[in-house]
Design brief:
Oligomer: single chain
Shape: globular
Amino acid sequence: MSEPTLAVIGAGTMGAGLATLAVGHGVPVLLVDDSAEARARAGDVVRQNLRMAQMLGKLPAEASADGLLESSADLRAAAGATVVVECVVERPEVKAAVLAGVSAAVAPGTPLLTNTSAIPVDELAGSAARPSDVLGAHFMNPPYLIEGVEVVRGPRTAPEVLERALDLLSRLGRTPVVVGDGPGFVINRVLQRMINEAASIVQEGLATPEQVDALFTSCLGHRTGPLATGDLIGLDNVVDTLHVLHERTGSDGYRPCRLLLEKVEQGRFGRKTGSGFYAYGTGMA
């Protein structure tokens, strides 16, 4: 088997996190984004992430991004990649356009992994030149610290493409769990409804964010509560995912509550903006 090379499409939080994971395990990465600012920022973020992961013992101490991280604005630059991961915004039309463009550039049989949070894989696969090359890889944030990956096998995903993707995840030290296709898959079909309901409870004045999360950590043994988890994911991403789930399931349990919508309208997305249900570095919001 040839040495893997990874193309990551999207230089945001998840794209930089995936690039960190890959270079930390010696896998060359091409980071593709049409924003020069995002590409430049991602390079700095990858190096910062790498140092932190090494301090925590999550990536090899000798790992370095030097010589392993490149970037481009052109999807066609991904032509030589052995695996592609798409991690652009959770909007079907944007993801579809990326998959159409990159599938035309890479060789047949190259795994095209979409990091969608909720959009059915087969829905996105229809935009690719070869739907059999498309599958889901739902990484948790940050992917260089969290070992589990929810791998989604679409109804048209070729078995050999799935195996190639699993080989790469093994090389990256991840633990895949392969599940079937459907809106939200397993994790977000459960988690996003829980975050939405927790936010509704705060909205109704029944409990504070601290109280809600304390019940989940102290009574249920969760590492973090639903609202702290929402802040980590990004409340903008939570709302986008809830919209997808609501549209595709018809269940009102996925209709974003007013408090979530207000926080997103205010630009309070969580950790990445410094404020969400909590304020980071300055106490509680």
